[in-house]
């Protein structure tokens, strides 16, 4: 198959969507497909054998890390050269609308996937009154696709309840070779705790943005004697978070990738994730693969990954004491913590990227079969 993938974000940016897409592109190419990635220009022209066509863009005012790239006529020429069998639009917002347009005008089958819970993000940026409008826009775009993919059963229910049709769950995936409990390191732990390796180490990994609700970790940190917090990642909310955590034992690590990131997960005592807007929470699966017990809000797609008391702890996001009590429970019982680590790793081992990509190929094949029947 020849797949043209339109995405609003791709490498070298680092986030959960890019992680999924980069592994998907890699495995599609390995399995014999050809991929063309059309994304905001990040300076890359090739990845794992796939072509990348970068479209010039400009930073999004509310989120400078994201580039807004407008569709342009040169995309049509690139598509004509590539001759895609289908077009896959990821989180269609601006550039993705170009993918929708070209799928229609070139009569190429269309698949869309939903990864960011935009309607729920709005309230964190003072735009909650636009949630209804956002759902209508999403419905108008997604209902033109032959299949709409999302990343959890919770998101499937949310999309379907708001009138989006033909919604299927694209299974989760994680790199179980990279993220491994054996990477636990005293040196890494000392770095993340700023020289206090024997203190309890709480970890957060992800975007430092308002919708992640990272500020809610402070009461947890303050409730654990001698605890240290390491925040891995960066984003538009960093300055506000530095003020919020001022006077606490918090270390802003910045970005980590590859084995450095995997070692951070493996070396922490608990991964704390308070976000209520996750469509899946891929970073949780990475933590679990590295044997790091997770404490997460019982919301969005997170319950698809974490089974409370088995491979992590879930807390009621409306309960201010929930995360504190779960963390205290985790840290006070080493035997239970070891069981959680073991079970977390076992859960992660079920979800390799190869299986997730083969499932995606199945959706692609279904769309192409429909197109052939329609043309007959």
From TrEMBL:
Alphabetic keyword roster: Glycosyltransferase, Transferase
Keyword Transferase: yes
Any one GO molecular-function label of the UniProt entry: glycosyltransferase activity
Pfam families in the record: Glyco_transf_4, Glycos_transf_1
Keyword Cytoplasm: no
Organism superkingdom: Bacteria
Domain Glycosyltransferase subfamily 4-like N-terminal: 14-177
CDD domains in the record: GT4-like
Domain Glycosyl transferase family: start-end pairs: 198-346
EC number in record: 2.4.-.-
PANTHER family noted in UniProt: SULFOQUINOVOSYL TRANSFERASE SQD2
Name the record gives this protein: Glycosyltransferase
Species of provenance: Pegethrix bostrychoides GSE-TBD4-15B
């Amino acid at each position: 198959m020849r797949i043209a993938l339109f995405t609003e974000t791709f490498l070298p940016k680092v986030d959960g969507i890019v992680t999924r897409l980069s592994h998907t592109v890699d495995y599609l190419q390995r399995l014999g497909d050809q991929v063309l990635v059309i994304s905001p220009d990040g300076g890359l022209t090739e990845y794992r054998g796939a072509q990348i066509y970068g479209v010039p863009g400009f930073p999004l005012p509310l989120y400078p890390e994201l580039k807004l790239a407008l569709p342009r006529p040169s995309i049509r020429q690139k598509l004509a050269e590539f001759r895609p069998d289908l077009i896959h639009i990821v989180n269609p917002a601006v550039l993705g609308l170009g993918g929708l347009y070209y799928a229609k005008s070139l009569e190429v089958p269309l698949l869309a996937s939903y990864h960011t819970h935009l309607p729920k993000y709005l309230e964190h940026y003072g735009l909650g009154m636009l949630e209804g409008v956002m759902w209508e826009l999403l419905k108008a775009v997604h209902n033109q696709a032959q299949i709409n993919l999302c990343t959890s059963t919770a998101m499937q229910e949310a999309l379907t309840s708001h009138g989006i049709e033909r919604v299927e769950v694209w299974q989760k995936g994680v790199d179980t070779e990279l993220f491994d409990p054996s990477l636990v390191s005293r040196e890494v732990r000392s770095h993340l705790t700023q020289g206090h390796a024997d203190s309890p180490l709480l970890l957060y990994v992800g975007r430092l943005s308002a919708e992640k609700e990272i500020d809610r970790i402070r009461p947890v940190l303050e409730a654990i004697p001698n605890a240290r917090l390491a925040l891995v990642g960066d984003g538009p909310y960093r300055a506000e978070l530095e003020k919020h955590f001022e006077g606490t034992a918090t270390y802003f690590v910045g970005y980590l990738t590859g084995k450095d990131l995997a070692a951070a997960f493996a070396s922490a005592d608990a991964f704390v994730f308070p976000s209520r807007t996750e469509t899946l929470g891929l970073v949780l699966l990475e933590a679990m693969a590295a044997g790091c017990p997770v404490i997460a809000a019982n919301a969005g797609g997170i319950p698809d990954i974490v089974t409370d008391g088995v491979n992590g702890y879930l807390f009621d996001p409306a309960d201010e004491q929930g995360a504190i009590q779960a963390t205290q429970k985790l840290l006070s019982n080493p035997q239970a913590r070891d069981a959680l680590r073991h079970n977390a790793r076992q859960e992660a081992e079920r979800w390799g990227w190869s299986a997730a990509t083969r499932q995606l190929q199945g959706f692609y094949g279904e769309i192409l079969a429909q197109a052939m029947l329609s043309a007959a």
